[in-house]
Design brief:
- The chain is mainly alpha-helical.
- It has one domain (4-82).
- The protein has five helices and no strands.
- The protein has helices at 4-9, 11-15, 21-33, 35-50, 61-82.
- Helix 4 (35-50) runs antiparallel to helix 5 (61-82).
- The two termini are 23 Å apart.
- The model has no long low-confidence stretch (mean pLDDT 83).
- It binds zinc ion (ZN).
- Zinc ion (ZN) binds at residues 4, 7, 30, 34, 36-37.
């Protein structure tokens, strides 16, 4: 099973239409099981739609950093609740 960090590192590949199907399945199984990453994927897709029509590009670094920071806060908060 992927960790959220590993998933985020693969996020660009996941959103790449030319992704290898096996990798995509692997990443999709994480999104299906992880509400946090589902939100990250959803937000990223919506944000990337803004760039549609412009030259193709990867997920902007600042967006990725913001999502990552939000995700880490969520994970930290969840850990606190469980402890
Ligand atoms: Zn996750």
């Amino acid at each position: 099973m992927l960790t959220c960090k590993q998933f985020l590192q693969e996020l660009n590949d996941y959103l790449d239409p030319s992704i290898d199907p096996e990798t995509k399945r692997h990443l999709e199984s994480h999104v299906a099981a992880c509400p946090n990453c589902f939100v990250v994927v959803d937000t990223t897709k919506k944000t990337l739609q803004v760039y549609k029509g412009m030259e193709p590009q990867a997920v902007p670094e600042d967006l990725k950093n913001r999502l990552w920071a939000a995700l880490e806060r969520k994970i930290a908060a969840k850990k606190k609740v469980q402890a």
